[in-house]
């Protein structure tokens, strides 16, 4: 062969799209992790909700999730991301701005060795799943048009406050050293409290629906739950913003805690009710995933198992015992029990993080971890004052998220109610999907034809087709 070289044209040089500050492996993993989290919502929670509700609510429940995902994305790139992670406006909120321009998107993100475009997408899927989790509390009666207004308003005036305060480097709780590895506070505690508050204002389902609300397809619900579980690999594994040992630890701890929690919940169901409940097992899985989220890469494996035992038992106790004795909890109709599975489990995870976070692991995740230490380890290192301080910061974070979401969610619901009713009419709630959307999930009779005497016997698309043929 001849000894010659070939020069690529300047526009094809590899460096043109790979600046020196970018790590290709980190960028590839971050986009993969974001996609895994996105799959938790679309189709994960779509089919989990669609299978877990009564047949007449399957379409409406799934559609609420799909709409939220799309709406949040548009709002996120137009103003939400910069409110959450942009330049500081006040200690708990960023300056509003778009995240669409090439000059911004192709620059290095505020953390990690990848561009802002990757960070915007990664943070979007977290914001989207938060709204979809809130939807779980109001399934089976919320007016879809009210939901259409609620989503952008809550994202703007609640989620961005919590995200900036806890996750932005300039946020006041972040500067205090709060530990929320991947969203126990920002996502799960927020969605649990906001969902419970929204359920209070929307009001309960019809009495007969509330008394008997069997899943229309448990196998479909399990498929959604499986996507939720496996997608958590990206949920917690992507938050170090780098492909490192801490990301690997976070992934393993996540699945260990979830499995332990599921088994703990199952044992309690069998012991006290004599039945191994599939729905109960899913609840235990979710509480385990939620509980480990603020601690995923900050604790050792034995701590992950302990957290799984706590997350499989304490939310079980609040759901099965406390709920039945509390007038307030009985009054509020929380369809998917997001208060117990997300608010209680998220708070529990935040407290246990403050207890079990190991200093050497904190150093892998936080730029400045000199004052961040779990209370359990502070005794052995002679830093008990820092351990108690950390517990105080963790509790302050819980209080902040609760107050923020009770107030903002209430104000948003009251505002939306001035424009459209928050809940469907009793007549429409009797019918469900056909009344809300003119569609139904399953064709039971004939070849999918709807009953001619039904008030909602034909969808708008059928009307259009008939008019076209005429």
UniProtKB/TrEMBL annotation:
Membrane topology: Multi-pass membrane protein
Pfam families: Ammonium_transp
Ammonium transporter AmtB-like domain ranges (all copies): 28-442
Subcellular location: Cell membrane
Superkingdom assignment: Eukaryota
Entry keywords, A to Z: Ammonia transport, Membrane, Transmembrane, Transmembrane helix, Transport
SUPFAM superfamilies, A to Z: Ammonium transporter
Coiled-coil positions: none
Family listed: Belongs to the ammonia transporter channel (TC 1.A.11.2) family.
The protein, known as: Ammonium transporter
């Amino acid at each position: 062969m001849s000894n010659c070289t070939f020069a690529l044209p300047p526009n094809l040089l590899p460096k043109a799209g790979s600046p020196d500050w970018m790590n290709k492996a980190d960028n590839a993993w971050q986009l993969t992790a974001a996609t895994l989290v996105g799959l938790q919502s679309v189709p994960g929670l779509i089919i989990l909700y669609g299978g877990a509700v009564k047949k007449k609510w399957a379409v409406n429940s799934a559609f609420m999730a799909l709409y939220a995902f799309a709406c949040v994305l548009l709002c996120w790139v137009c103003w939400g991301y910069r409110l959450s992670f942009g330049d500081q406006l006040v200690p708990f909120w960023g300056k509003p701005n778009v995240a669409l321009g090439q000059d911004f998107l192709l620059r290095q993100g505020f953390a990690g060795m990848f561009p802002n475009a990757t960070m915007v997408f990664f943070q979007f899927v977290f914001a989207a799943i938060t709204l979809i989790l809130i939807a779980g509390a109001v399934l089976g009666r919320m007016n879809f048009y009210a939901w259409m207004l609620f989503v952008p308003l809550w994202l703007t005036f609640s989620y961005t406050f919590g995200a900036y305060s806890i996750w932005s480097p300039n946020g006041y709780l972040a500067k205090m050293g709060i530990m929320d590895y991947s969203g126990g506070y920002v996502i799960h505690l927020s969605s649990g409290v906001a969902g419970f508050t929204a359920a209070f204002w929307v009001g309960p389902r019809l009495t007969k629906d509330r008394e008997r609300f069997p899943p229309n397809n448990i196998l479909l619900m399990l498929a959604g739950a499986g996507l939720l579980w496996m997608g958590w690999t990206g949920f917690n594994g992507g938050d170090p913003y780098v492909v490192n040992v801490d990301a690997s630890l976070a992934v393993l701890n996540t699945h260990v805690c979830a499995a332990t929690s599921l088994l703990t919940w199952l044992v309690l169901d069998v012991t006290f009710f004599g039945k191994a409940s599939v729905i109960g097992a899913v609840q235990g899985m979710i509480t385990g995933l939620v509980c480990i989220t603020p601690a995923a890469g900050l604790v050792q494996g034995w701590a992950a198992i302990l957290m799984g035992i706590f997350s499989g038992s304490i939310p079980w106790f609040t759901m099965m015992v406390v709920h039945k004795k509390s007038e307030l909890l009985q009054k509020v109709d929380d369809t998917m029990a997001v208060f117990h599975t997300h608010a209680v489990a998220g708070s529990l995870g935040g407290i246990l993080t403050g207890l079990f976070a190991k200093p050497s692991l904190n150093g892998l995740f936080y730029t400045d971890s000199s004052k961040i230490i779990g209370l359990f380890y502070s005794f052995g290192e002679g830093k008990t004052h820092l351990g108690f301080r950390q517990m105080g910061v963790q509790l302050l974070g819980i209080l902040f998220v609760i107050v923020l979401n009770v107030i903002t969610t209430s104000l948003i619901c009251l505002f939306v109610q001035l424009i459209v009713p928050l809940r469907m009419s009793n007549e429409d709630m009797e019918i469900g999907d056909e009344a809300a959307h003119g569609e139904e999930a399953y064709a039971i009779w004939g070849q999918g034809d709807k009953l001619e005497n039904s008030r909602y016997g034909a969808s708008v698309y059928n009307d259009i087709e008939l008019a076209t043929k005429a």
